[in-house]
Amino acid sequence: MTFRIALTALSLSLAPFAAVAECSGHEQKVQSCAPGSAWDAENKSCVKQITS
User: Fold this and answer.
1) Assuming Cys at both sites, which of 24, 25, 33, 51 could form a disulfide with 37, CB separation 3.0 to 4.6 Å?
2) Are 37 and 49 in contact (CB under 8 A)?
3) Pairwise CA distance, residues 40 & 30, whole Å
4) pLDDT-derived band of residue 4, with 50, 70 and 90 as boundaries?
């Protein structure tokens, strides 16, 4: 029974580290373009807006 308690305590203490490890690399950044430009998702760059 002491072994199960120790194993449970170890698992609970390591759980936050596992959660952080799974979420790394999923950062989202907001892209902003200069005035007169718009974000083109296909090319993943800012393109000049054409107005007439």
Assistant:
1) 33
2) yes
3) 13
4) very high
- Helix, strand and coil in the chain, % to nearest 5: 40, 15, 45
Positive/negative CA dihedral, 23, 24, 26, 29: positive
CA 2 to centroid of chain Cα atoms:
39
17 vs 31: CA distance, rounded Å? 30
Judge whether 48 and 37 are in contact, CB under 8 Å: yes
Q: Indicate whether this model's pTM tops 0.85.
A: no
Contact (Cβ atoms closer than 8 angstroms) between residue 16 and residue 4: no
Q: Which amino acid, 25? A: G
